[in-house]
Amino acid sequence: MTxxxxxxxxxxxxxxxxxxxxxxxxxxxxxAAMARAGSDIDRVRPQVSRYVKDECARLKKAxxxxxxxxxxxxxxxxxxxxxxxxxxxxxxxxGFPLVGLIxxxxxxxxxxxxxxxxxYPAAVVDCHTEALGLALSRRYEGKRPKELPELLxxxxxxxEIARAAAAQAAISGTAAG
Length: 177
Hints:
Elements: H1 17-23, H2 30-68, H3 74-90, H4 97-116, H5 122-136, H6 149-172
């Protein structure tokens, strides 16, 4: 029996500034790189927090405008989806994990609805819009989803309902026009 197991991965050297620095003797250590990244994130956190709040305002405005008419405006829904994607990508890092969860859920909802070509599920998105307002309140800002199991369970259930409706519409071929 061999004591030296063969690795199941293949290491690939990247020929960029970071890769060359990592291969240089005396280069930056992983822990130093992590510390530097952490301090960089802390330095820009106020600007990113402002960005998250601005994107949340943009998302809420787009969602409310999309709901105003009987038939949602596709451009406003697209704006809401873009804002959701932006929030999904940065909210956790900026210290808004609940906002990140809500944004991820909205992305799933928009993608499912788009794929099934069904009507915009206003009630489902309304619930997430209200949860977004709650997530931005002082009482809930910075809370992790696991600290709010009832809210997490409710939002997850709503996403599953939206997915099921989209799947059913795709199966039955009742795409809304």
